[in-house]
Specification:
This protein is an all-beta fold. It has strands spanning about 5, 15, 30, 35, 40-45, 45-50, 55-65, 75-80, 85-90, 95, 100-105, 110-120, 130-140, 150-155, 160-170.
Length: about 170
Amino acid sequence: SPTGTPVNGWGPFERDRSDGQAAAGDGGPITIGGVTSVKGLGVHAASDLRFSVPAGCSTFSASVGVDDEVGANGSVVFEVWNGTASRLYQSATKTGSDAATAVSVPLSGVSTVRLVVTDAGNGINYDHADWADAKLACTASGPDTFAPVVSGVVATPGSTSATVTWSTNEP
């Protein structure tokens, strides 16, 4: 969930839906250039969503574009920020005629990521913007909690003891 107060240019931002109108949950499937995504964020320019980046997460990725629900209309610019410190990514102006653009942004040293959509300087009409398949790439942290798989157990008897050897799936 976003941290702070999410900003969205028209109605609330939507999770796993496009930004419809003024009510929550009124958007349709996220669709950019005829490609539908089950997961993502639907927003309307001007928007600013902030998310804490958990330890061990190294990359933010998404496919960005204007949702098909507005046809060839709409024009936006997508930005990814390191909190308020620096812009890490800025797209070219995207319109409803454009296919999605794949975005992959390294997050080394980032504790808060901001996902910003601007109106590309020409007003907010039809600016339904999608962060399709938005996700963080994270490595597992903490102790290994999975039991190893033991195989190839061999017991070699000796005169007063036995030697037991085995292999596991762990390094």
